[in-house]
């Protein structure tokens, strides 16, 4: 909990100064951003290798690494100023099960090795599939945190998912039982797609 609180503190100060989050998001950092990222851990098997594509300010990767020390999390982020922030956060919080890779998803090597590839607020589902599914091993999964647009994006981008190697998309809602307090009422709606070829 101390690490999570320290992370929120860094997001709400340095994160705003560097343009990683807007000042209006500060009251919603816990519920809408940090906790709704952490609860996605419900869908991640034990001791998984996880890649967070387009990590930005570290969401969802840093909350996942804090919540689940058994995971190995790689934050993939192309922008240097964001990479600098992520490295500072990891060092300040002493998180040992995480690394930062400055790259675009399509530049990550070796491909096809992750158990789980996560993303949040990065791109439309079809585009995400082209970036994320090649990073997952066969039988691994892409978890795209999508919110209210999930069902619409699944319908619209079904063919892109198949083209990128994915099976049938499933929509899961994470954290409903955990986020019961009124201030923390934003569960995560996640599109889950297994890589089948």
TrEMBL record:
One of its GO terms (molecular function) is rRNA (guanine-N7-)-methyltransferase activity. Gene3D superfamilies: Vaccinia Virus protein VP39. Keywords: Cytoplasm, Methyltransferase, rRNA processing, S-adenosyl-L-methionine, Transferase. Its EC number is 2.1.1.-. S-adenosyl-L-methionine binds at residues 54, 59, 105-106, 120. Its main location: cytoplasm. The keyword Flavoprotein does not apply. Signal peptide: none annotated. Coiled coil: none annotated. The keyword tRNA processing does not apply. One of its GO terms (cellular component) is cytosol. InterPro entries: rRNA_ssu_MeTfrase_G, SAM-dependent_MTases_sf. CDD domains: AdoMet_MTases. It comes from the Bacteria. Pfam families: GidB. It is found in: Cytoplasm. PANTHER family: S-ADENOSYL-L-METHIONINE-DEPENDENT METHYLTRANSFERASES SUPERFAMILY PROTEIN. HAMAP family: 16SrRNA_methyltr_G (MF_00074). Belongs to the methyltransferase superfamily. RNA methyltransferase RsmG family. Specifically methylates the N7 position of a guanine in 16S rRNA. This is Ribosomal RNA small subunit methyltransferase G. It comes from Glycomyces paridis.
């Amino acid at each position: 909990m101390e690490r999570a609180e320290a992370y929120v503190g860094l997001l709400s100060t340095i994160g705003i100064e560097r343009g990683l989050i807007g000042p209006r998001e500060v009251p919603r950092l816990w519920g809408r951003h940090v906790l709704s990222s952490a609860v996605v851990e419900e869908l991640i098997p034990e001791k998984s290798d996880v890649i967070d594509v387009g990590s930005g300010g570290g969401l969802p990767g840093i909350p996942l690494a804090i919540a689940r020390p058994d995971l190995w999390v790689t934050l993939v982020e192309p922008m240097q100023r964001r990479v600098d922030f992520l490295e500072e956060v990891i060092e300040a919080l002493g998180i040992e099960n995480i690394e930062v890779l400055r790259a675009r998803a399509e530049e990550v090597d070796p491909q096809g090795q992750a158990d789980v590839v996560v993303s949040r607020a990065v791109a439309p589902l079809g585009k995400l599939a082209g970036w994320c599914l090649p990073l997952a091993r066969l039988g691994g999964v892409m978890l795209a945190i999508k919110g209210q647009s999930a069902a619409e994006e699944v319908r619209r981008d079904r063919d892109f998912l198949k083209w990128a190697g994915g099976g049938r998309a499933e929509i899961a809602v994470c954290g409903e039982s955990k986020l019961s307090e009124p201030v923390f009422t934003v569960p995560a709606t996640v599109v889950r797609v297994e890589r089948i070829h």
